[in-house]
Amino acid sequence: MNAAAKIDDNVTKLEVEAPAQPTAEAPAQPVAAPVAVAAPVQPAPAPKKPRRLGRLLLMVVLPAALAIGGGYVWVTGGRYQETENANLQQAKVSIASDTAGRIVQVDISDNQLVKQGDVLFAIDPEPYRIALAQADAAVAVARVGIEQLRAAYSQAMAQEKSDASEVDYAQSQYDRAADLAQKGINAKSSLDQAKNDLDKARQQLAVAEQGIISAKAALAGNPDIETDKHPTVMAALAARDKAAYDLAQTTVKAPADGVISQASSFKVGQYVGSGTPLFALVETGDTWIDANFKETQLTHMKTGQKAEIVVDTYPGRTFEATVKAIGAGTGAEFSLLPAQNATGNWVKVTQRIPVRLELTDADAKMALRTGMSASVTVDTGVARGLPAIFGHATAAEAQ
To answer: pTM higher than 0.70 for the full model?
Structure first.
């Protein structure tokens, strides 16, 4: 019976699980087939990492690598000394007139670029032309005076010759009168007259000789001197040259290539005095850089070393330069009020020393203007190196 009961149960289950047959009243409904769902697989546990060993390596290796890298950079560095405390400088010439007068011509304007020899302005030249004509007349008068002195010298020479003849004649008369008086033929009065005539002739000869000396002195001690070599004529010629120079200075020209500055109020009709500054000329051909380096950066810096300049106005352009000179002292030494360090509250501060660099690129000077900020890098050619670390010990061993 048990076997029969089990068979009946199985048949009943099959009937229940079998799908219903479709009928005319109720159409068949689609039935989804059963889908098998896989059970989730649990991952195998990962092995534990040695965290303590990794942290130890990170704490030791990374600082060591940074220290080694930093040490290498420091030892191999120091060759290039840099500073941003630098400014470009150009010579500024104050333009003034050597002569006084009224401005009749102005050929410049503010911030105008000029070349050497260009006319800047002109002063009324008429008064100086008159002065030059007067100086020419004075030279002619001086030359005539020298010719008169030569004539006076010739006259003195002739007078001296005539007086010498008179002395000879008076001497012969005196000798004849003395001979006759000795023989008792002539009276003594005739002898005295002859002697008086001889003395008078000698005095006139002495005066004539002094006249020759005076005439010779008037000719500067040389009767054959050239007219234009005489001091009087030379003085007149110098005055004439001065008048010609003053006339030439009425036209003022640019002493060098540059840019006109501070000339906005300079106009025609203005009266200017001699030596009065009128405006400025910034020379574009004379350009240099004043860089203020720390005193600790000048250990290996010398004149003639190469440098690179980067101007803030042209950030992508590099200018070549050369160290021209190193300042004689720090900026504090030449300040208006130098620091007094002989006090109890003295604090050591790294000082800066100016270094002048000369641009070697002539074409770049035209693009630069005075006062521009710049960055300077000087190649000293000497890195720090290991001897720098043990420098004191090495010096001690050398001693």
So the answer is: no
